Amino acid sequence: MLTALAPPVAAAAVRALGVTLRLTEAGVETMAPLWAARQPLIYAVWHGRLLMIPWLNARLCRTRGARAARVLASRSRDGELVARWVARFGLPVVRGSSSRGGAQALRALAAAVRAGEDVAVVPDGPRGPRERLQAGLVVLGAATGAPIVPLGFAARPARRLASWDRLLIPWPFARAALVFGKAVTLARDADREAARADLERALREVTETADRLVGA
Length: 216
What we know:
By secondary structure, this protein is α/β, with parallel strands linked by helices.
């Protein structure tokens, strides 16, 4: 019973928290042409900055012409809760992870991108190492040719949990920032390790930019 209630309660709490945030958006001007063209995109954000992203995606759909992104959630019990939670924000889900059902999940994400959908991945999930980009994002980007957009989110004041990802939970009325990095397109024959390192650096940079915008 408590498990069944967790996703709707968590979604309601995130919505209530979101409307109190003093939000700054950076890099939106670079995204506007991509959204207007309805080009399929691959969003990437660190696991520890994930909490507010579904609410922010729904907000961008209303205010900026963005689209709901298909989300990758693991096949674990926690992944099931995540899938039910993001569904509350209108986000469709692909089930799988780097450790369980990874190849099938990547194929499903690639099929979604080729069908014109946006997708969102957490490249250090589901269990880390924290802020260490795994190979799946590179494989997906090279296979589809879709632009990869690094996302950074920060808030201050905020609480950081003692979890492996140090999940960031903003306090009500906190200053918050959502930063879009430069979209990166990978060639099919791109050097995978070099691309992985470049994307990891880009994702860290947009996260650090978000931190600076809120004074963290």
